[in-house]
Amino acid sequence: MIEKELRDGLRGAVAEEPPLGFDPDEAVTRIGVKVRRRRATFAVAAAVVAVIGGAVAVQQGVGLSRGGDVEFATRPAPPATVDPPTTTSRPTTDFQWPVPGLVPSKRLTQAEAEAAERALGKAALDKFLKQVKGMRNVKAMPFDAVAAGTGDPGPNVVEGGVEFRDQVGTTATFISVYSSRFVFPHPDRECAEAAAGEPCRVSKLADGTALVVSEHRGQRNPADVVFSATHYRLDGVVVRFSAYTYDPTGSGRPEQPRRERPALTEKQLTALATDRAFTM
Amino acid sequence: MRSEDEARFRDMARRQAAPMRRFAYLLCGDWHLAEDLVQNALTKLYSAWWRIRGAETIDRYVRKTVVRCWLDEVRRPWRRAEDRTGVVPDVADHDGDPASVGQRAQTRDLVLRALAEVPSRQRAVLVLRYFEDLSVADTAVALGCSEGTVKSQSARGLDKLRAVIARLGLEDSALAGGRTES
Questions:
Q1: B158-170: pLDDT as tens digits
Q2: Contact indicator for A139, A129 with CB cutoff of 8 Å
Q3: Rounded to 5 degrees, what are φ and ψ at B28?
Q4: Domains of chain A by residue range
Q5: Taking a C-beta distance cutoff of 8 angstroms, is the pair B131, B23 a contact?
Q6: Which of residues 198-237 of A touch B (CB under 8 A)?
Q7: Best interface-test mutation with B: which of A11, A14, A16, A280 has the largest number of B CBs within 10 A?
Q8: Would you say residue B132 has pLDDT above 70?
Q9: Does the CB of A197 have a partner CB in chain B at under 8 Å?
């Protein structure tokens, strides 16, 4: 039976492990220093914000008492020159995130989580077939409700995908739907953390939501491109669709052919990510 | 962290480092990445130690943290391409019987190569269920998902293992004819 062979195989695989490559004692010491330093940095940052906030409040109070005019103690510096925006610039938006005053959704029960998995699986297939034409062997991949991050026992994200075949071969689009319980980073931060040279664009949509369109290149193979559209909604839900130049399903081989561009276009990814059928 | 808490954390790290790395290795299939995962998990545990230090189920927290570190790792879009070839390093086996040595080595290599192609979450379920011998309920707690999801992921993972083994041309292996545990 495969269960017994699997147990034996797993135990055998770690039976002759190499010696530990780090000293746990040293690691704990290093971790302690790192955590304390990080906490100190946060404390300093919070203090700086508090001081700046206080200074601004005082300045506004003084300005109002003088009829709104604020005198400079010295000549103001000339405005700094601003580099022209490029395709890889990191524009900021006035999008407020987390949405002010938003109460995170309640934790899903097991039955609700399983219902969300089924609903998203069905929506994924329906919407994909509507938005993306000409693909073969289109089938929904399993959707699973899981916990992401460390602050919430979850489930706070449902992930799955749609597998399909284009003229190059099999590939897929992966879908992540984050509930408002998951603390998703601000869209500007999402782009700020992108590697240098990787396109990442934040835009505020007409309905007040925000969209991030980004592209990541593989570190081992730059021909591996992940192209994503991430939609930040006013109910706190975040939906991400990703398309690939390769087969991300786990069944692809390293020598598989790569597409010149990811299998879905920006327009298709955006239409899917902003579709309200994808929610939880 | 107070000195007595730090001493307890240090003691836990000494005891758990090797088991954590074994567990992480079965998830990721790479001893170096496994060590990174263990150190990430220790960092997270250190930050949360004030909350879990009195818990009787520290082992569960430790496993849960390693699994979450691994899932966080694979959740990053640029980590999704798991182009791992499933190459298994040669290791010595000191058992005297060449037949049983060969059989064990074959089973181990086959399982590792097949496991490398199982999607990450299914792999986590299989390792928790069949290496850590966790119940369905405990696996669900460790993964933060429902028991139904654990059962379905386990069944899919086993099916995927069979499919990979079949693709590897080893249908005649004892592994290929099993049935799924319900």
A1: 888 888 877 765 5
A2: no
A3: -105, -20
A4: 110-273
A5: yes
A6: 216-221, 224, 226, 228
A7: A14
A8: yes
A9: no
- Between A228-237, B19-28, B91-100, B117-126, the lowest mean confidence (pLDDT) is in B91-100
- Integer Cα distance of A196 and A9 in angstroms: 43
A137 CA: distance to closest CA in chain B (Å): 18
Instruction: List domains and CATH numbers for chain B.
Output: 3-79 (1.10.1740), 98-177 (1.10.10.10)
- pLDDT tens across A196-212, in order? 778 899 999 999 999 99
SS3 category, A130: helix
Find the helix or strand (DSSP H, E) in which B5 lies: helix B3-28
Contact B161, B118 (CB under 8 A): yes
Mapped onto helix, strand or coil, the DSSP state of residue A225 is: strand
Whether ipTM > 0.90 holds is no
The b/e string for B41-68 (b: 16+ C-beta within 10 A; e otherwise) is bbbbbbbebeebbeeeebeebbbbbbbb
